[in-house]
Every structure is written in structure tokens, then in C-alpha cells.
């Protein structure tokens, strides 16, 4: 196809310009500014082996997936991006690219589904994962010569928002010829670009910030290496865990406002975190955007303008009961799992997203029964802060009345 695929977008442009224009060509036949959704599963050929355009069969590639992948590659400062049917499918494909007998070193605080895949699926195929709560210090010792092939980082961690210095870990891994993967779901490409800090592959659950409207399940991996492109796109097609053209189109539409949403979510989370921190009913606040965060220096080095993103967690006075009541009493924050949408959500990790982790392991990672996780959306900061404070007052009072 000779159409101008990038619609004037070039990698030297800034984030917002790329978010709107990268991978967003005008339709070459009608001039439509927004690409049509190509639902066709198959594409006509003029003679055997000569398709009319670029496409043959939709699992292998289709225009909407191509457009979305091109946009994500631009935003993550990558040469390539590949989209999958979920964040979990993305993780699975990266792990399946390893030969049986391979070893992986991972941070302990990974997304629950990632932990499940590492321990219950990858292990069944001969790939074993060692977890470390302090990977910056431990990575060198945990590397097994000739066996370790991958280091897996998730920063910030979920739900305590601890940060990992990507550059530090990558320097050690690369000395041993080992690839570094960063799950960047919580920060989104607007706040953090892991490839700029030495990561080899960045992965996202597009379900969260990139789509941003809580209506698409999707994943993406971005990277620069030509050999990774060959291997991972082979697996994308061979395994077939690919998103539909409709989902690619929706996620691409969501991505065009990522910079606006991420800035607003950061403003809102900062405001809520500061209000919570000032309350006598709060034992601790975990938010990388404020100076009390133990890894604030990493946030300043690794995040755009030291931004903290939209996620925070805090420990409420009054134990598990107060935590549960808080999430019932909020009116703007909806009690629900997931994150990264325009609407604000809250949940109690120990009873919901992290309930599957044994209590002692959970608490060692800072996930106490009184911890509440909040995903700040793009409503107004005043309303979110007022909502959090009223729910806090009510929940703490109610938990005291009936005997904690
Ligand atoms: C949600 C999530 C995933 C999994 O993504 P799905 O799209 O739900 O499969 C992976 N990593 C992180 C950090 C997540 O939040």
C-alpha cells in the first residue's frame, strides 16, 4: 500500500501529536479521517499468492491491528509492537518464546495472573521462575549461567506501588546477555517508557490505561530487536491469541487521548493522596508522586516529570472492616477490580485481587487487610477528594461503633 501510513507523524514529534496521528492514515479510497473497521477475515488475491493489498488472513494481520501496533510502537519509542487478545496472552507469548529448561528471574510483586502463569503454566512447560522482593540487589546472584534467559519487572508494583530501577537491573542482566521485560501497565507509555531505561520488551494490559474506557480486553508488547520481531510475530500468528479488528479500533481510539487522561489521573491521584496523608484515619499512603514515597527518587528519574500516575493505595484505621466499608461508602469511586479507566475505582486487595496469596506472603509484601487500592479516573479532583474523605470518616466511625 502506498497510502501515507503515518499521516505526517514522525518519531521526533511529541507524545500528544503521536498519540493522535501515529498509525492513523486517512482512508486512501474515501478520504475518511478515521479508518474503517476491517471486519473481513480474508482478503482477495488476484492470482495465487498475490493478494490485492497487504493482507491475506486476519489472524496473521489486518489493517486495524497494524494501525494500533504502529501507534503503540511510536508511543513506547519502539521499532515494533504486537497486539494480543489480553495482557495475559501477551505474557504467555513472551514466556512461550523461551525454550524448555529456561529460567526467569522476576520481581515478587507481579500481577496475580502473571504469577499464576509463571507458577502453574510456564512451569508445566519446563520454564522456571525465581521471585525476588529486592531484585535490584539480588538479580546478579539469582542469574543461572546459560539457563536464565529473562528478567521480568513490574514497576510500580501492585498494589503497594513500589518502584524498581529499570536501568540498574538491565545493566546486570545485559552483562549476562539476558533480556529484560517490563510490565508498564500501571504507568502507561505517557508516564514511563521502559525501553529508554534499558528494557528490551515492554508489555501492557491495554485493558487498563491504553484503552482507558473499561470496554476492551487487550494486550501489547513493544520492542526494538529484529530477531524478537521475527520470533514474537511468528508466535502471535501460530498461537492465535490475537485481538479482533473492532477491539483494535476501539483501543486505538482510546489511545489518542492517553496523554490527557494520564495527566488528569495524576493530578487527581496526587490530590487524593495528599488529602489521605493529612487525615488522622490513615496509617500510610503509597503513591510514587509524593515526597513521602520511599522510591520517589526513582519516580523522578524514570517517570515523565516525576509523575505518579493514577494509582494509589492506603492503609485505613479500623482494619479490614473499615477497608470494606470505605469501598461501600464511596459514591464517585466504584467498588470494582481493574484500573486505568476514565472512571475512578476502589477495591480491597486482600479480599479481592490478591485474595489468592497466602496471608503471610501477602503481608510480607505490604498487602495488609486494611489496605485499599484506588484507581483515579478523570473526574474532578475536588469531587474525588471529597468523596474519599467522606467515605473515610464514615467507615472509620462505623468500624469503631460496632467494635473493631
Ligand atoms: C490487568 C493486568 C494484566 C493482565 O491483563 P489482562 O488484559 O487482564 O489479561 C497484566 N499486568 C498488569 C499489571 C495488569 O494490571
Automatic annotation (TrEMBL):
Key words of the record: Amino-acid biosynthesis, Cysteine biosynthesis, Pyridoxal phosphate
A matching Pfam family: Cys_Met_Meta_PP
MF-aspect GO terms: cystathionine gamma-lyase activity; pyridoxal phosphate binding
One cellular component term from this protein's GO annotations in UniProt: cytoplasm
SUPFAM superfamilies xrefs: PLP-dependent transferases (SSF53383)
Top class in the EC scheme: lyase
Obligatory cofactor(s): pyridoxal 5'-phosphate
Modified residues (N6-(pyridoxal phosphate)lysine): 208
InterPro entries: Cys/Met-Metab_PyrdxlP-dep_enz, PyrdxlP-dep_Trfase, PyrdxlP-dep_Trfase_major, PyrdxlP-dep_Trfase_small
GO biological process, one term: cysteine biosynthetic process via cystathionine
Pathway connected to this protein: Amino-acid biosynthesis; L-cysteine biosynthesis; L-cysteine from L-homocysteine and L-serine: step 2/2
EC number: 4.4.1.1
Family designation: Belongs to the trans-sulfuration enzymes family.
Protein's recorded name: cystathionine gamma-lyase
